[in-house]
């Protein structure tokens, strides 16, 4: 389901991302979790080329992405590299730093050294892939690989290179805490295009460039950064999305319909509130649980008329902050159920700690009356886009409670917007969503689903590849 077709649609793409889109699950090779893979997988399936990524420590990765012309080029990391580059610098330094330092970023020189080393490995592998596809666009993704654009640029001055950041860029004040702040910026500025989900993140990036690099002679002109050597790097705002056609089609699949019927049966007579996230401290899961607890405290009738179901995908559980979060979430679930389960009645809070297939997830989306998306900060958030798409396709009238600190809130203002830091306020927002009249729910849902349908991931990728190709050609032309 393409929104538009451009000359770039069949150009080879070398995607460079920390993760390959497959990992080995209990039933064999499955899609890896997280928004990056959700967004990129259908897009890459439409292009020839290659995907360079870490093999996640599993051997025997398929050599191509199923149903595609994309070679999977696995990178094996040593145990020390996984510890220092992935768990350390990527997930305990850059992830919290870029998410407004809501957990304290940890700064370790040995992690930084490993980050540079692994970025070199990815850059070399991407260049070997580009040798096979001389016309390819190289498209680098996310906070794990911010040195890669410049490493490739050093070797291939004329290559079209794009970079997309899937997470926020914080205010220049927060970014400035990073001991290696200049190096990371120079790394990114090796690209022709550096793109973000929202204007706010893009402006923050431009302000960081000025604050950290102005002494070098670099200048910001409009949305471009003019480097001391005269090359211009374009910045762009390009909110990522989902394959809306694919998600909508799930609603009609027999397996999904059976799943919906089973859930409707299980939660008959209750309003079903749903949360679905990677178990991550950015997602506001604790605030959500506390808000549900307040609701049950305030209104005893809700203890039997409402159920809250939290789906949590295990994530980064060998990073300290994530392990601790799991323990805290499970304590809260236990306490709330201990306090509010009525004799002879089902528990008010249900908690599943596991990954699900997109079809299983779609059944939960279709069955839920209200989706709670309450991150303290989230670059975009695709779960809410999936929810409105499936609800609309299934003929539902679900309501969305959406944190104003997500990239998605810019695009979906018809949601019941909330500030998850204000837990009491959040509990009233949930109440408000439950009480919305069917007409108001349907109107909001239709508008949100339409926004996602029109601005789907195919439109996003066409726009990004066209821009990278154009800016790359212009920069190469200027050098000649
Ligand atoms: P992030 O990229 O931070 O994980 P997003 O909301 O952008 O957040 O993307 C999360 C992705 O994970 C979505 O595509 C969603 O379908 C998927 N997901 C959410 N919950 C589960 C689950 N329990 N099992 C498998 N995938 C899930
Ligand atoms: C977010 C990040 C992705 C990452 C995903 C899953 O979506 O932006 O880059 O792949 O989380 O996290 P993991 O650490 O398991 O790759």
From TrEMBL:
A Gene Ontology BP annotation from the UniProt entry: trehalose biosynthetic process
GO molecular function: alpha,alpha-trehalose-phosphate synthase (UDP-forming) activity
SUPFAM superfamilies found in the cross-reference section: UDP-Glycosyltransferase/glycogen phosphorylase
Annotated transmembrane regions: none
Pfam families according to UniProt: Glyco_transf_20
InterPro entries: Glyco_trans_20
Similarity comment: family membership: Belongs to the glycosyltransferase 20 family.
Entry protein name: Trehalose-6-phosphate synthase
The organism of origin for this protein: Trebonia kvetii
């Amino acid at each position: 389901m393409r929104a538009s077709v451009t000359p770039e649609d069949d150009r080879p793409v070398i995607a460079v991302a920390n993760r390959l889109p497959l990992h080995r699950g209990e039933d064999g090779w499955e899609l890896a979790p997280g928004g990056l893979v959700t967004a990129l997988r259908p897009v890459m399936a439409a292009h020839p080329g290659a995907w360079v990524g870490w093999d996640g420590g599993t051997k025997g990765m398929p050599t191509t992405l199923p149903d595609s012309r994309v070679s999977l080029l696995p990178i094996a990391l040593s145990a020390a590299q996984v510890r220092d580059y992935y768990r350390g610098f990527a997930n305990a330094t850059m992830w919290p730093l870029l998410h407004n330092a809501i957990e304290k970023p940890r700064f370790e020189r040995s992690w930084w050294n490993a980050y540079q080393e692994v970025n070199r490995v990815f850059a070399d592998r991407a260049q070997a892939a580009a040798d096979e596809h001389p016309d390819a666009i190289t498209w680098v993704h996310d906070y794990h690989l911010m040195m890669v654009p410049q490493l490739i640029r050093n070797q291939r001055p004329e290559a079209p290179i794009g970079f997309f950041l899937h997470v926020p860029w914080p205010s220049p004040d927060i970014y400035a805490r990073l001991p290696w702040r200049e190096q990371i910026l120079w790394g990114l500025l090796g690209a022709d295009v550096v793109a973000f989900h929202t204007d706010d993140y893009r402006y923050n990036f431009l302000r960081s460039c000025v604050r950290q690099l102005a002494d070098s002679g670099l200048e910001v002109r409009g949305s471009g950064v003019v480097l001391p050597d005269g090359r211009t790097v374009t910045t762009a705002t390009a909110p990522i999305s989902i394959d809306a056609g694919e998600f909508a089609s799930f609603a009609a699949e027999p397996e999904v319909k059976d799943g919906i019927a089973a859930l409707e049966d299980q939660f008959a007579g209750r309003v079903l509130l749903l949360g679905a996230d990677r178990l991550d401290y950015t997602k506001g899961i604790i605030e959500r649980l506390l808000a549900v607890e307040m609701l049950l405290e305030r209104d005893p009738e809700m203890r039997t008329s409402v159920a809250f179901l939290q789906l949590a995908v295990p994530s980064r559980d060998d990073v300290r902050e994530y392990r601790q979060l799991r323990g805290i979430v499970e304590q809260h679930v236990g306490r709330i159920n201990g306090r509010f389960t009525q004799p002879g009645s089902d528990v008010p809070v249900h908690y599943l700690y596991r990954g699900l297939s997109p079809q299983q997830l779609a059944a939960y989306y279709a069955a839920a009356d209200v989706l709670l998306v309450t991150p303290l900060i989230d670059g975009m958030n695709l779960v809410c886009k999936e929810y409105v798409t499936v609800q609309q396709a299934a003929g539902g009238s679900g309501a969305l409670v959406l944190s104003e600190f997500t990239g998605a809130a810019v695009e979906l203002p018809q949601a019941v917007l909330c500030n998850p830091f204000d837990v009491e306020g959040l509990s009233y927002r949930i109440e408000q969503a439950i009480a919305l009249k069917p007409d108001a729910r349907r109107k909001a849902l239709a508008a949100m689903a339409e926004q996602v349908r029109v601005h789907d991931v195919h439109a996003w990728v066409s726009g990004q590849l066209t821009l990278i190709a154009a800016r790359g050609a212009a920069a190469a032309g200027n050098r000649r």
